Amino acid sequence: MIADRHVALPRDARPPAWADALLRRLLEPADRESLSGDLLEEYREAIVPARGRKADRWYVWQVAGFLWRASWMWGVIVGATVVIRYLSDTLAPVTYTPGVIHVRSQLMSNALMAIFALAALHAVWRTRHVRAGLLVAVASSVIGGVISIAGTGLMLAVWHDPATLRAWQTSGGLGEALYGVPLLLLPIGAITGTAGAIVGKGLAWSRRRTV
Amino acid sequence: MLGAFEQAVLLAIVRLADLAYGRAVLKDVQARLERDVAAGAVHATLERLEHKGLVSSRLGSGTPVRAGRARRYYRLQPAGVRALNDARAAVDTIWHGLTWPLKGRA
Question: Number of C-alpha atoms within 13 angstroms, CB side, residue A125?
Fold first, then answer.
C-alpha cells in the first residue's frame, strides 16, 4: 500500500538531486543528456511503480556503478603500488631510520600522487568537470585502500614468521600497513586529485580554444 | 571476437531496429540474459562498440518523462553485421557434430 502512493505520480517522481547531479558530472558531455534521460525514464516508468520508496536506492546504485567504472582501474593501480611496496619490504627488508625518508617510501609517495593526479586529469578531460576529477581520485583512494588492506592481509597469511614480522616492524609496523597508509590515501587522493583536476580543466580549456 | 555481452547488445539493436535507444537496449539485454544489468554496463559496451565502428548513433528528441533529455539511438553498421555473423559461425563450428543439450554427468 505504501508503494501505491508512489505509483500515483511516477512521471513526476524525482531521484535524489545530488545523485542526478553526480551522474551528470561523471558523464561525457555527449552522453550527459541521453544517459541521464535513460536512467530517469527507467526510474519513473519502471522502478518507482515497482519499488516505491526504494526506487531512490536503485538510482543511487546505478550512479555508484558509473563512479565505479570511472575509478576501479585507478584504484587497482593505487592498491598494487602499495602492495608492491610492502612486498618489497617483506622480501628485501630494510631498516627505516626515524626522521629519514627512505627511497622506497619516497618512490611510493611520488607514484601515488602521480596516479591520483592522472586519474583526476583523465576524468576532467573526459567530462570537463573539475568535481568529476576529485570524485574519481577519492574513489580510487578508497578502492586502493581496500586492495592494500587485502594485499597486506594476504602477505601476512603467507609470511608470518618472526623474522618477517620483525622486518615489518622496522619498516613502519603493522598498523601503518593495515590502516595508516590506507587512511592516508584519502587526503593524498583528495589533494593531488584536486591539483590534477585543475590541470585537466586548464588543458581541456586550452584545447577547446585552439580547436 | 565479440564477447557474449557484446553480442547481446548488438542483437538487441538488431531486434529493436529504429527504436534502439539506450534504455530499450538495456531492457532487451536484461530480458534475454534473464538478469539485472547495470545501465552503466550497457553504456560502456555501446561506447566500445561505437568506438570499434560496429554501431553508430544519433541523438533523437526528448520526452516529458525524461524531462526533455534527448534519446541516443543506435544502428548496426556493416562491420557490426559481419562481427555478429562471425561470432555465430564460430559457435556453430565449435558445436559441429554435437547435439545440444549435452547429455552425461556434470
Answer: 11
DSSP B37: -
Question: pLDDT digit string (tens) for A123-174?
Answer: 999 999 999 999 999 999 999 999 999 998 898 888 888 887 877 777 777 7
CB of B64 within 8 Å of a chain A CB? The answer is yes
Give the gap in angstroms from C-alpha B1 to the nearest C-alpha of chain A.
Answer: 23
Q: Do A38 and B21 touch (CB under 8 A)?
A: yes
In Å, how far is A157's CA from the nearest CA of chain B? 34
Q: Which one of A33, A38, A45 has the shortest CB-CB distance to B39?
A: A38
Domains held by chain B: number? 1
Structure confidence by residue, pLDDT tens digits, B13-38: 999 999 999 999 999 999 999 998 98
Count CA atoms within 13 Å of residue A111 on its CB side.
18
Tell me the CATH number at B20: 1.10.10.10
Q: Which three cell numbers stand for residue B41?
A: 554496463
Domain of residue B81, residue span: 4-95
pLDDT in tens, B60-102: 988 999 999 999 999 999 999 999 999 999 999 999 999 888 8
